[in-house]
Design goal:
Blueprint lengths: L3 E3 L6 E3 H6 L6 E2 L6 E4 L3 H27 L10 H27 L2 E3 L3 H10 L1 H5 L6 H15 L4 E4 L8 E6 L7 H9 L7 E5 L9 E3 L2 E3 L4 E8 L2 E8 L7 H15 L1 H6 L1 E8 L7 E2 L3 H12 L3
Parallel strand pairs: 7-8, 12-13
Antiparallel strand pairs: 1-2, 3-4, 4-5, 6-7, 9-10, 11-12, 11-14
Helix pairs in contact: 2-3, 4-6
Length: 305
């Protein structure tokens, strides 16, 4: 008998303890990736049992109150809801566990909002996103944010400013959140072929230029690194020249540049700890432009022959 079931999106097991933590068996969210879930096979059966159990619990609560008031008269004045939680709540917990076992073993768990539903919506409104301009950004961006939120709260997006081979790139990102990576991959895999759009999973590597945030002006050529390799990941020390790594704007600028240089997927999956330090002369420092090549070399060495 199964006591857990994989989330249909992130594939991390949802346990009976997780199921009992749901406010109801019919408003479920994966505790790991936070996607909304629904069950399509045994829900009517569970709803029927729930409808039958509510009057039974009310009857049992009144029975307990009448029994206890024979020994402790003041119990008669205690609201039924308090008696229920004090005496019968363990019974409710067992009932919820029963629901979980039924759902895990006989049910059919799905995403509440499917990937195909998103793409049907997008195709219907695709002209708004192909003909983007400054005048319609405030109107159309919140709408697509709302649709992606239904798939996974961590998803975000970008559209290329210019057309590439007559198509606008539609980049779907998890903003570095590893728990949401499966949602990005599955949503992009479900994307239909579209004449005006190229759908891309994760922010890609790109040529970087200087970045200005507040009073901070950070240049890629002023970023250097050393690394150690641990458990297949690169732990990085990033040295910033002519910049203060203790300044919040500086750290934000450095992360944005690093994301552009390495790419969202590699930065999240292949890079471990990152520490930012003030620049200091050392023969061991490497320019940040060498980091993508280093990640590629390590991947090739670790790949099976």
């Amino acid at each position: 008998m199964k006591t857990s079931v994989p989330c249909p999106q992130c594939e991390v097991p949802i346990t009976l303890d997780d199921f009992e933590a749901f406010s109801t068996p019919f408003t479920m969210k994966c505790p790991h990736c936070r996607v909304k879930l629904k069950e399509t096979r045994v829900t009517p059966f569970l709803l029927l049992i729930c409808a039958l159990m509510i009057p039974l619990f009310i009857y049992l609560t009144e029975l307990v109150q009448n029994f206890l008031s024979g020994f402790i008269p003041v119990v008669e004045k205690i609201p039924l809801i308090i008696i229920f939680f004090c005496v019968l709540y363990p019974v409710v917990a067992l009932y919820e566990r029963f629901n979980g076992l039924v759902m895990f073993n006989k049910g059919n768990l799905h995403l509440k909002h499917s990937y195909n539903e998103f793409w049907k919506w997008f195709i219907k409104h695709s002209d708004d996103y192909f003909h983007l301009n400054e005048e319609n950004l405030d109107a159309v961006f919140p709408t697509i944010e709302k649709q992606l939120l239904k798939i996974n709260p961590a998803l975000t997006f970008e559209f290329s400013a210019d057309l590439i081979d007559g198509k606008r790139e539609f980049i779907i990102s998890a903003d570095g959140n590893l728990d949401a990576f499966p949602a990005v991959e599955k949503l992009v895999l479900a994307a239909p072929v579209m004449e005006n759009f190229k759908v891309v999973a994760f922010r890609q590597r790109e040529e970087t230029s200087d970045i200005q945030i507040g009073d901070v002006h950070l240049k890629p050529e002023n970023m250097f690194f050393t690394y150690t390799r641990l458990d297949g990941l690169l732990d990085l020390e990033i040295f910033l020249k002519d910049a203060d790594p203790n300044d919040d704007d500086c750290l934000t600028a450095a992360f944005i540049l690093l994301d552009s240089i390495v790419g969202e997927y590699d930065l999240a999956v292949k890079v471990g700890d990152i520490e930012f330090r003030p620049y200091e002369e050392s023969i061991f420092l490497k320019p940040i432009s060498e980091l993508p090549g280093l990640i590629g070399q390590i991947n090739e060495k670790s790949s099976p022959v």
